Amino acid sequence: MVIEGDREWRLAREAGVVIQEVFVSSRQGVVSICRQEKVPCFEVAPEVFERISYGGKTTGVVALAKVPEATVDTLPAKGSLFVVLEALEKPGNLGAVARTCDAVGVDGVLVCDGRTDIYQPNVIRASRGTVFSVRVARASNQEAWDFLRDRGIRVYATSPTGDRLYTEAKLTEPTAFVFGSEQQGLSAFWQTRAEGLLRLPMRGKGDSLNVSVSTAVLLYETLRQRTRR
Known about the structure:
Blueprint: E1 2-4, H1 6-14, E2 19-24, H2 28-37, E3 41-43, H3 46-52, E4 61-65, E5 81-86, H4 91-104, E6 108-112, H5 121-127, E7 136-139, H6 141-150, E8 154-158, E9 164-165, E10 175-179, H7 188-193, E11 196-199, H8 211-227
């Protein structure tokens, strides 16, 4: 996979991602680190770097790395907060969700029936590299359900027609939120298995928010309930 950006590259290293090659333009600190870690590092002219960087962005660092294993077996055996994303299509949304999950301290993200690569460059960019600091796993719906059920995780689905406002749910127990694609919403698989369908108040003409915004609202409500005195 391609990792672009100094911050993104450093977060990948901290997460144990295997870096195979690095290309830099005027980043002496990066060169020193690569020498210490015996990673091939190539200094290139700015005009060359502009050609090899993704989308022509001059971020100073482009790394080639081994794609991490991303199965449910890599998720923590114990955890109290998970996010399930079903059939998300847009890399930017997946990256934005990962960034929020990192901020809140989510234990794991399960990408079910994924329609975009977890480590696609736009995902990495939108997440500001936090897709590496959050435990992310690919899974089928059934694998994700089995994982959560076996650990006694309470599952809430989100829907504009939910029977309960998100603020009415008790979120202090081990919890997982399931979010569907904006185009198709959640499948019947999750709607029939979830303990409850939560909704956000919508007072305008629209009937839903962007999935990354909905995720942020619910995760920060969970954080509020768990940290209030």
